[in-house]
Amino acid sequence: MLLNLFLLNVFIMLCCWVVTLLNKRAGIVDVAWSFCIALNVLLSAVFIETAPDSVRIFIGLFSGFWFLRLGWHLLRRYQSEHQEDRRYANMRRTLGNFQNLGFLAFFIFQAGLAILFFLPMWMLLNRSANQWGSESGILLFIAALIMLVAFMGEALADQQLYQFKLDAKNRGKTLDQGLWKYSRHPNYFFEWLHWFAYPILGLATGLYVLWIYPVLMWLFLYYVTGIPFNEQQALKNRGQNYRDYQQRTSLFILWKPKK
């Protein structure tokens, strides 16, 4: 089934790649990535009957809804922007005459990356009932609590930023209210927090390998896809306004701002 899910992801990514050929906006890949994981989660929770029903319901509802909300948010942002995301515009310039083939390879890579970040749910769903310890109930409750806090935090941060950007008066300014007063990237912080739910649930069934996922997500956000690019672009677009914000506001963890 894992291979079938990967092929499904590839098909979705190929469709999005065709859309990108037409409108020259590769940012749709982020939307597709989130919806691929959501679809993988929902299909697996329904058709894999190995794990206890409580685990299947938890992953189907909590994880499925997490990635559906993320996908919807990214789709809304994609539709509100009329130009290509700067990350992909830079990639397009770098690829030059090979941009179509380059993006094809990139989109297929994202199909595999979706499987990589779906694996925690996949492993949990494939643990039979007799492999779950007696403490699974309390760990399921803790994991659900983490998911709920992370979901509310990220949804609120995303909505605050979305509303801020809708107001033309805020162009060239930095959002420094709400959750953004305590972190320059609160949405990334809560995204990272969400990935602790799976290793905590994995304690009930001996899946200690899942602890690599909060580390992996932190590395991606901190050094690869998230914070470095956003910080660079914010400095380029907002200059001293953002430098002042940097000096008083925590980079990642929510913390009291400096005076």
What's the main sheet like?
none
The ordered string of helix (H) and strand (E) elements is HHHHHHHHHHH
Average pLDDT, to the nearest integer?
A: 93
Give the count of helical stretches.
Answer: 11
Which structural class fits the helix and strand makeup? Answer: mainly alpha
Shape: globular
Question: Percentage of helical residues?
Answer: over 70%
Determine Rg (CA atoms, Å): 19 Å
Number of strands: 0
Strand content: under 5%
For this structure, the quaternary state is single chain
What does this structure look like?
It contains 11 helices and no strands. Helices cover about 70% and strands about 0% of the residues. The radius of gyration is 19 Å and the shape is globular. The longest helix has about 30 residues, at about 135-165. It has about 260 residues and is mainly α.
Summarize the structure.
The protein has eleven helices and no strands.
Which key terms come to mind for this protein?
11 helices, 259 residues, mainly alpha, 72% helix, single chain, globular, 2 domains
